[in-house]
Design goal:
- 13% of the residues lie in helices and 33% in strands.
- It is an alpha+beta fold.
- The protein has 3 domains: 219 residues, no CATH class; 138 residues, no CATH class; 133 residues, Dna Ligase, domain 1 (2-Layer Sandwich), CATH 3.30.1490.
- It contains 8 helices and 28 strands.
- The chain has a 9-stranded antiparallel beta sheet with strand order 14-13-12-11-16-17-18-19-15, with no helix packed on it. A 9-stranded antiparallel beta sheet has the order 23-22-21-20-25-26-27-28-24.
């Protein structure tokens, strides 16, 4: 609820309750703040809150007043927005003291220090949650009362205001200084706390949500979002990302595909490709969190600020378990994110966590393992398992060869070389098989079965068996101007080794390869191709 709306509601409450009766209530403090000064509090309240809506801090010249002091010629005085600009705020609470200082003009949509309105003294080199600091100032500079509890109180201790739980000394740009004190929670309304202003012993209640940030420490304002994410999907292009991890003996390396921006080239819908430990297309829905997950990556809490070498060692980041390096357009130096070994705090804590920091930064964070894909991802988890993804009409020649010596050669020629292939169908091409005219649609149907081939797992350490493959496919992509080869080797009773461009790539299902061999034999007949396998 905005301040002006609170004032409108409060004005109605004030005018109604000025003639209201009082009722005495004996209340026991259930606050989690220090309430040892009094186990019981007797206070006067009204059936409708007396003093609700009083603007305690309007601007740097206004003073807090009670309803009977509202100027007769300006009954809506407290609807005015706060005008005073806070220059500094010195906060003291059980965690110690810190100073919030004004730096410039606010841009609460950014975590960039250059666009911050406020920061914390001695933390200028740390990215803070600048919007939270600005909201704190906004909440204080325009704070309204929920009620007046005790005018000119003679015993502040029963409200926890003799030794306040939090104190804020505010200095405005015009030099005016005000000091505010927060006491214990109102036992009758736990969402409210007692509040007073220096120089006036009137005790008010205010909503806890408006002053709760005064109980924080500087580290509570550290920005947990380690890297901003754009609101309009305009993040820089990730040119490469590598994962170096202790539990695997290879790096996982991803690069922006050379044909990613070319819709005519075929390929998968993912913009990136796996290049190490094997070359493979990526499944976009399974790889996005890995390739672009640094943007918007948000930790759970701060482990250390202004961290020393000892802090880094204690966090396990001097010799990290995982190192993720991301190179982007528009930035000369890469982002390097370090992760410690996965751990749990104690036997009762089942949440697995890791410490994380950007290499060379001065803040260490803690985050749940479930939010960190890089510490456990395996290549097969993010790869598309399709063996071939070329556009059928980009191919101008294709040869199938089986282990028994059968060889089928196809030539595909476009009737209109200027027509965009994405708008073509079989009727736009002439096809020959072994030099003789052949039904282009029947050729396309066999290719359609071919592109359904997929791997079950990567064959990282496999050796190519001796002898001929069960079936091999060689083709030329005229659009990419590249040659490709796919070979299916008999690898075990149920499996094949799929070799792409001379390198072992996948372990596949033997029944698929055998069905492909059988379909090639059906070229001599009018039988439909078999499109299922076990």
């Amino acid at each position: 609820m905005n301040k002006q709306l609170k004032g409108i509601i409060g004005l109605g409450a004030v005018l109604v309750v000025l003639g209201g009766g009082l009722a005495a209530l004996k209340l026991t403090d259930n606050s989690d703040k220090d309430s040892s000064s009094s186990s019981e509090i007797t206070e006067e309240t009204t059936t409708r809150a007396y003093g609700a809506g009083i603007v305690l801090v309007e601007d740097s010249t206004a003073l807090p007043i009670t309803p009977d002091q509202i100027p007769a010629d300006e009954p809506d005085w407290h609807l005015h927005p706060a005008q005073g600009t806070v220059k500094t705020m010195d906060v003291t609470n059980e965690n110690g003291s810190f100073s919030i200082v004004r730096t410039g003009t606010a841009d609460t949509g950014s975590s960039d220090a250059a666009s911050a309105e406020y920061t914390i003294k001695d933390y200028e080199d740390v990215v803070m949650d600048y919007s939270a600091l600005s909201y704190l100032m906004s909440d204080i500079n325009g704070l309204t009362a929920v009620s007046v509890i005790d005018e000119n109180s003679s015993d502040l201790s029963k409200f926890g205001l003799d030794k306040p739980a939090a104190t804020a000394e505010v200095t405005y740009e015009d030099g005016v200084v005000r000091k505010f004190f927060v006491g214990i929670k109102n036992p009758a309304a736990p969402t409210q706390v007692y509040f007073k202003i220096e120089g006036n012993n009137t005790v008010y209640t205010v909503f806890n949500s408006e002053v709760e940030d005064l109980f924080k420490s500087p580290t509570d304002f550290v920005q947990l979002r380690m890297l901003d994410k754009s609101q309009d999907n305009s993040d820089p292009i990730v040119r490469s990302l590598s994962v170096d991890r202790k539990d695997i003996d290879y790096d996982i390396v991803i690069e922006y595909g050379k044909n990613s921006d070319d819709s005519k080239a075929g390929g998968s819908s993912a913009k990136h490709e796996l290049v190490e430990p094997v070359n493979a297309y990526l499944a976009v829905e399974r790889s996005e969190s890995v390739t672009n997950g640094m943007f918007g990556f948000t930790a759970d809490e701060v482990y250390a600020v202004h961290c020393t070498d000892e802090d880094i060692k204690k966090a396990g980041l001097d010799d990290p378990f995982c190192r993720v390096t991301m190179k982007c357009d528009g930035k000369d130096d890469p982002y390097v994110m370090l992760f410690s070994d996965i751990y749990t705090d104690d036997d009762e804590d089942t949440v697995r966590k890791t410490h994380v920091m950007f290499e060379g930064s001065n803040v260490i964070f803690t985050v749940a393992e479930s939010k960190v894909p890089w510490t456990s991802v395996m290549p097969i988890d993010i790869a598309s398992r399709l063996v071939i993804v070329n556009n059928v009409w980009n191919i101008d020649s294709m040869t199938y060869e089986t282990a028994d010596g059968r060889k089928e050669e196809f030539k595909i020629t476009a009737r209109d070389k200027n027509k965009d292939h994405k708008d073509c169908d079989a009727s736009d091409f002439d096809t020959t098989r072994n030099g003789q005219p052949f039904d282009t649609e029947r050729y396309r149907q066999l290719y359609s079965f071919l592109v359904r081939s997929n791997g079950e797992e990567f064959a990282l350490d496999a050796e190519i068996p001796a002898g001929k493959p069960m079936v091999s496919v060689n083709y030329h992509d005229a659009y990419l101007k590249e040659d490709f080869s796919i070979e299916f080797y008999d690898y075990s009773a149920m499996k094949t080794l799929i070799v792409v461009n001379g390198k072992p790539k996948f372990i596949g299902t033997k029944s698929y390869a055998q069905t492909l061999v059988d379909n090639i034999a059906r070229l001599d007949t009018n039988e439909d191709y078999v499109t299922t396998w076990k």
